[in-house]
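Hi there,

I know you've been waiting on this one. I reran it after we fixed the sequence typo, so this is the corrected version. Both the input and the resulting structure follow.
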Amino acid sequence: MDRKLMIGAAIAVGALMVVPGVAAAVARAARPAVKAAIKASVVGYREVQRAGMEVYETAEDALAEAQHELAEGDASGAAATSDEVGAGPNGSGGRGNGGQA
C-alpha cells in the first residue's frame, strides 16, 4: 500500500509540473478560436443594434403619423362643433333669426 501511495504522489507531482505548460499551449492554440468568437459576437451585436434602430424608427414614424391624424381629427372636430353651435336649436346664431330679417 505504501508503494501505491508513492506512485500516486509521483503522478500528481508530475501532472502539476506539466499542467502549466499544457495550459499555456492550449491557451495559445485556442486564442484564434476565442478571437473569432469575440469578432462574431461583435458583429452579431451590431446587427441586433441596427435591427433595433430600424424598429425604433418605424415605431417613431407610426407614432408621428398617429399624432398627426389625431391632430387633424381634433381640428376638423372643432370646426364641425363650432358650425353646429352657431346654428343653434331655433335657427338663431350666425344665420340670423331663421333666415328672416
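Quick highlight: DSSP finds one helix and no strands in the chain.

Best,
R. S.
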